[in-house]
Amino acid sequence: RKSRAQAEKQDVNYKAADGDVAVIDFKGFLADKPFQGGEAKKHHLILGSGSFIPGFEEQLIGHKVGDEFDIKVRFPKDYHSKDLAGKEARFEIKIHELRHHILPELNDDLAKQVGQESIAALKEHIYKILDEQYIEASKREMRDELLSILADKIKLDLPKVLVSQEVEMAKQESERSGQKFDEKKEEKDAQRRVKLGLILAEWGMQNKIAISNEELQRAIWTEASRYPDPKVVFDFYNKNPNSLAMMRGMLFERKALDEMLKHVKVKEKKVKPEELFEQKPVK
Prior knowledge:
By secondary structure, the chain is an alpha+beta fold. The chain is built from 8 helices and 5 strands; from the N terminus they run βββββαααααααα. It has 3 domains: 8-101, Chitinase A, domain 3 (Roll), CATH 3.10.50.40; 104-141; 142-276, Trigger factor, domain 2 (Orthogonal Bundle).
């Protein structure tokens, strides 16, 4: 075993595995139409890092150098871009190179190379990161469940103009992407979004929820880091008032939900890590 981690280039018979570095071209499509920001050449992607949208990296595992294939993924419902949020996308993939990491020897020298005093301190640091990931994944599940309860149980007279605006935006997006527009479904989804938005806005104001500029910039950088050129995306956000407002609104609603969760009874349930992070397949 080597004292420093190395990623060794593999031959054409090697199959990509979790933790490998894949050098890929990718191009994304919505209903066979390319979308902005969905393409890159010879991008270095660590499989299993979670740096891309859910389901993307997993579908590269098992493929070889030279393989050209398509994958399907669905963008998260709370994705920052409304043009992509909740949408199914197809990506054309080409693998140029695969590199397999050789694990270093676990000792104090390794720990010092990554900024920790000892191997014990490094393990504690890793456990802390994992714990934070488990907590965030659990919160995400609780937020989703709470949103479903709020949408089902609370009755509101919804402003027709807000619902109409949501439906019209969905219609325009369907026309841009070439996807079929289901007016009945979109009307129902729009009513749900408007209802939840009003509920969370009222709760947030009553509880004096606010998003600081530091929180906003941190969230933008986190999102930008998912792209091949994070600085370009980061600068785009900060120069685009609509994108900033959208991100601030998403953070406000998430913060309001987290505050609301402090006032509800939560029943603990033990699950395996793979169940907690499991992504539903795209049908």
